[in-house]
Design goal:
219 residues; mainly alpha; 2 domains; three-stranded antiparallel beta sheet; 55% helix
Length: 219
């Protein structure tokens, strides 16, 4: 009996130990699984949340479609530029030709400045305004004993103007003539003489070997 009782007691203790070991093993296993879940799963969730939040459209940014629609509705159309009408010249082709020819013949050389050429033109215009001279540029230039050969040849460029080396001077004479015919005259209306010598009632300006002189005022 004692032997059997001891055997039973050992068996019960062995079973109890085995049960306790199983319980302890289970607790350890559950603890390990819990630690793994705590360590790895939250990071994976956070990464997924970051990926989702990175790819989703921000709620505070307006929709491109809505922005485009708003711009189209509120945009102000750009007005088309109004075509400007070109001003017609206040002089005729004949007046331009006569003025350019006179400037070239009287002051077309390289020794004369553009200012001198313009003074030649302004003297011609002063004569047109003066009642003691003819009323047009051509008539002023073709008057007797006034502008060289123009009296018997008519207004024309000097023969040297056909030379290639004179083309620049001819073009410059035309440019100066346009300015004379369009820009206000800076000289007094009494300056009606232009020559290589003094005349009239006094010298207004002597420039590039040319005298520009006054005449008596018309009463």
């Amino acid at each position: 009996m004692d032997y059997q009782e001891r055997s039973r007691h050992r068996m019960r203790r062995r079973k109890r130990n085995i049960r306790n070991r199983r319980i302890a093993f289970g607790i350890i296993l559950v603890t390990i699984i819990g630690l793994m879940v705590w360590i790895f799963i939250p990071k994976d969730i956070e990464e997924r949340e970051e990926q989702v939040s990175g790819t989703s459209a921000p709620t505070n940014v307006p929709s491109p479609t809505l922005q485009i629609t708003r711009d189209v509705v509120t945009a102000t159309p750009t007005p088309e530029p109004t075509p400007t009408k070109e001003l017609e010249p206040t002089y005729t082709e004949d007046e331009l030709f006569c003025m350019a020819a006179a400037i070239y013949n009287e002051a077309g050389g390289d020794t004369c400045s553009d200012e001198t050429r313009m003074l030649v033109g302004y003297v011609i215009l002063n004569r047109v305004k003066d009642p003691r001279f003819p009323d047009s540029i051509r008539e002023v230039l073709e008057a007797r004993n006034q502008y060289g050969e123009f009296y018997w040849t008519g207004v024309k460029f000097a023969d040297r103007s056909s030379k290639p080396e004179e083309q620049h001077a001819v073009e410059r004479a035309y440019e100066i003539a346009k300015r004379v015919l369009t820009e206000p005259s800076p000289i007094p209306e009494t300056v009606v003489f232009q020559a290589e010598f003094e005349q009239g009632t006094g010298v207004y300006k002597y420039q590039d070997g040319i005298y520009f002189c006054h005449a008596k005022e018309v009463n």
